[in-house]
Amino acid sequence: MKIRIATRVSQLALLQSEWVKAQLIKQVPGVDVEMVGIKTQGDKLLDKKLNKIGGKGLFVKELEEAIYAGKADIAVHSCKDIPMELPQHMVIAAIFNRIDPRDAFVSNQYTALGDLKQGATIGTSSLRRQAQLAALRPDLNFKMLRGNLITRLEKLDSGEFDAIVLAVAGLQRLGLASRISQYLEPEVLLPAVGQGALAIECLNESKIKSLIMQLNEPLVAACVNAERAMNYCLKGSCQVPVAGFAQVSAEILYLRGLVATPDGRQLLRAEQRGLISDGEKIGTAVGQELLGLGADKILRSLAE
Q1: Distance between CA atoms of 183 and 190, rounded to whole angstroms?
Q2: What is 217-304's CATH topology?
Q3: How far is residue 88 from each of residues 66, 70, 71, 91, 212, measured CA to CA in Å?
Q4: What is the end-to-end Cα distance of the chain in Å, rounded?
Q5: Which tens digits make up the pLDDT trace of 246-300?
Q6: What are phi and psi of 146, to 5 degrees?
Q7: pTM of whole model > 0.90?
Q8: String of DSSP letters for 205-270
Q9: Tens place of pLDDT for every residue, the chain, 304 residues?
Q10: Is 103-184 in the same CATH topology as 1-97+197-216?
Q11: Domain parsing of the chain, residue ranges
């Protein structure tokens, strides 16, 4: 059996795909796994804000096209990059390997967010992060930060920013957790939907779908699917500051959701608890509660 993995060519994406390759080889002795590296539009257009050029879907579109064209069998994604609506005939066959979902405050001068000087410059490409940080520190200046994780760290080291905010998971996977100055708890900075988890996408009718499904981790999938259900209800994307994070404890799933204006002046929050098996219903309920609080007005104003 041969399985071709479509992957972005960044160091982190390749590392994640290599991890999946190792799992497949372990699961199916003798399987031939080939990497199909693709430089996506999201990786090429580094001088523009993601919300202005189509959102994080730009990181997955070409990978999906490779599968449609028969050049690859599966695609490995960071869950947070996957749009809420998948192309026809595509399916997320497995969600797994969720490591630390938090955001990281990274600085060469300051040990914590609260230590930043008045008017400090923060690097981030995320409206979600910008909105929540602006609510905490209205005095901060936000500057666009694009590129792969290594490039972002290099820009910090060159003195372009006083601090930057990155996903903890990416730093951990690349062995760079020592760069983290402060772990930002969900109570401070609610993570992105799916942050920290990986997913495998393939054609729904693919012959290897059942094999890929064996990598699925039910509790991780329950949490991410609840978060995605909330985001689907909101029709959220990286074009609007939306955050969602679910946790499981003692058979109960707890989901927190947030919608904000980019300037952080309005932060709408909602949360629900329920059975793990009702995760997607909980996600929809949180989305509807946020809409009832006025999230629809924020979403409409940002779409204009």
Answers
A1: 12
A2: Double Stranded RNA Binding Domain (3.30.160)
A3: 14, 15, 18, 9, 19
A4: 49
A5: 999 999 999 999 999 999 999 999 999 999 999 999 999 999 999 999 999 998 8
A6: -115, 175
A7: yes
A8: T-TTHHHHHTT--HHHHHHHHHHHHHHHHHT--TTS-EEEEEEEETTEEEEEEEEE-TTSS-EEEE
A9: 899 999 988 899 999 999 999 999 998 888 999 999 987 765 555 455 545 445 556 678 889 999 999 999 999 999 998 988 899 999 999 999 999 999 999 999 999 999 999 999 999 989 999 999 999 999 999 999 988 899 999 999 999 999 999 999 999 999 999 999 999 999 999 999 999 999 999 999 999 999 999 999 999 999 999 999 999 999 865 567 999 999 999 999 999 999 999 999 999 999 999 999 999 999 999 999 999 999 999 988 887 6
A10: yes
A11: 1-97+197-216, 103-184, 217-304
Alpha carbon dihedral 215, 219, 223, 224, in 10-degree steps, equals 0
Query: In the structure encoding, which two tokens stand for residue 99, read together?
Result: 């490591």
Catalytic residue IDs: 81
Q: What would the two tokens of residue 179 be?
A: 């760069």
CA atoms within 13 A on the CB side of 234: 39
CA angle 144–261–157, rounded 5-degree value: 20
Q: CATH for 103-184?
A: 3.40.190.10
The CATH code of domain 1-97+197-216 reads 3.40.190.10
Strand order in the sheet with 267-275: 242-249, 252-260, 267-275
